Each structure stands twice: as structure tokens, then as C-alpha cells.
Amino acid sequence: MEMDLLRRFNEICNTGVAMAGYTSGLCGEWVEERFERLAAELTIESSRMIMANQHHTDKVSVMRMEDAGYGIIRSHDDDYFDAMITAQTGVMLCIHTADCVPVVFLDPVKKVVGISHSGWIGTSKRIAAKTVRKMVDEYKSRPEDIICAMGPYNHSCCYEVGEDVLERFRESFSETECEMLFEEKNDKGKYMLDLGGAIRLALQQEGVNPENIFDEGHCTYHTSTFSSWRRTGDKKKQILTYIMLK
Questions:
Q1: What percentage of the chain exceeds 90 in pLDDT?
Q2: How far apart are CA 120 and CA 214, in angstroms?
Q3: Dihedral-angle region of residue 157 (phi above 0 means left; psi in -120 to 50 means alpha; beta otherwise)
Q4: Of 29, 147, 152, 236, whose CB neighbour count within 10 A is largest?
Q5: Residue 106's closest CA among 20, 42, 202?
């Protein structure tokens, strides 16, 4: 299933500088043939795609043309990172998720894009906000110009977490903020965490305008179209999210 996450963005900023979207149902074994099929659909070369080396870090890497093909036709090394930015046209940044939040970023003024994989660990470390900060540091972007969108993820209606997760969030979010993000314990002694709300809050505190933050709206747990590890227990089925400067 293909959907253009930047459709509404382009309507707002009246620009066609980037393309973004996601494909559900790809296997977790990221073999070259699967990317070849996706590349053919998007009319690009798979050698221009980059897959993040995800490990629930808060590291944001800057990608250039010489990095093209990393994780696709070239093997990953031990350099883990869960977010990427680039000002290079024709290089597609990719991440995979299956309940975590995929976030894409566009600065239509400086012509910069980014992407981040934000599970509860990355969200507690404010990886989306750090992606914005990296765009500012590397390319002189202004937070108020940056447009952000969250793809399908496990929403607060069904995202159960324990006390240990709440404690991790308390390291970077205030007690008042945690009270907003964590619903009271349910009958199983679990909290319900609003991952999207936490990302939105962190982005706004980084200077992103609230009206420039979008949520695609689908919950992976409740929408069978999308891969969900919590719903199915199948770690091989995941969602691929991508963004590229045209």
C-alpha cells in the first residue's frame, strides 16, 4: 500500500521538492530483490536508497551521495543510527517499523529532508527533536520552516507499557508532561503511552510550529493493513517508510 505523506505538506508549502510514503508488508529480511521491486515502483535505482542501521539509538546521521546503497546493496557495519538527514537530491532515506513511529521531515526552504525511527526508547530520548536539531546544525534550517509527519504506529489506545518505561521518560520529560503522556494504570497494572503526543511535544519544544506537525492517523494495532509486532508477534512483517529530495 502506497500513500504520499507529503501530499498535504505540498499543498501547504506549495512545493514539490520531496516525495515520501510507506509500504506495508515487506519482510524484515531486507534483501536486494525487495528493494528492487520498490525502486521500480518509485522509478529510482535501488543503489540510491539508504536503510538506517536501527538499534533504538538517538543518533542522527548525515547522508550524502557516497552513502547511497548503504543497507541495501552494501552491508551494514557496526555504526548504529536510527535517524538520517540529507540535502542531497536523488538519495532516498528509509527506515522500517512495526508499531514504532516513523517520522519524516521536510525543510522546503533549505531543501533538506530527514527521517527517524522512534519507538518508546527513541521517543524517550527525543530522537525526532534531535533530528530537527541536526538539520539546524548541519544545514542552517530554521525549526519553524520544518514540516514533520508521523506514519502509522501503535497509538495510545492500545500501547501498553510498564513502570520501567515511565521511569525512562522521566529522564527527559517533566512530571507534568509524563502525566499527560501516560494514562493511569489499567486493570493489568499497565500504563497507556501516547507516543505520538510525546513526539509532537518534543518537536514543538524544539521550535517546530504545531501546524507543521501531522499524524497520518492509522494505529498499527487496529488496522490489519499495517504490520504490527504487538498484534501478530511476527517480526518479519514490517512497514518501510521513505523520503527523498527530488
A1: 62
A2: 19
A3: alpha
A4: 152
A5: 20
R_g over Cα of the chain: 17
Locus of grid cell 501498553: 160
How close are the terminal C-alpha atoms of the chain, in Å?
21
Residue by residue, DSSP assigns 17-71 as SEEEEEEEEEESS--HHHHHHHHHHHTS-GGGEEE---SS---EEE--GGGTTBT
Q: What number is the average pLDDT over the span 120-124? A: 98
Phi, psi (rounded to 5 degrees) for 18: -140, 160
Q: Which amino acid is at 94?
A: C
* CA dihedral sign, ordered 94, 100, 106, 110: negative
Nearest to 193 by CA among 215, 217, 168: 168
Helix (H) and strand (E) counts in the chain: 8, 13
Which residue ranges make up each domain of the chain? 7-159+194-245
- pLDDT single digits (tens) 36-58: 778 888 888 889 999 999 999 99
Q: Global pTM?
A: 0.92
Dihedral sign for Cα atoms in the order 10, 60, 238, 162: negative
Q: Which CATH class is domain 7-159+194-245?
A: alpha beta
What band does 4 get if pLDDT is binned at 50, 70 and 90? low
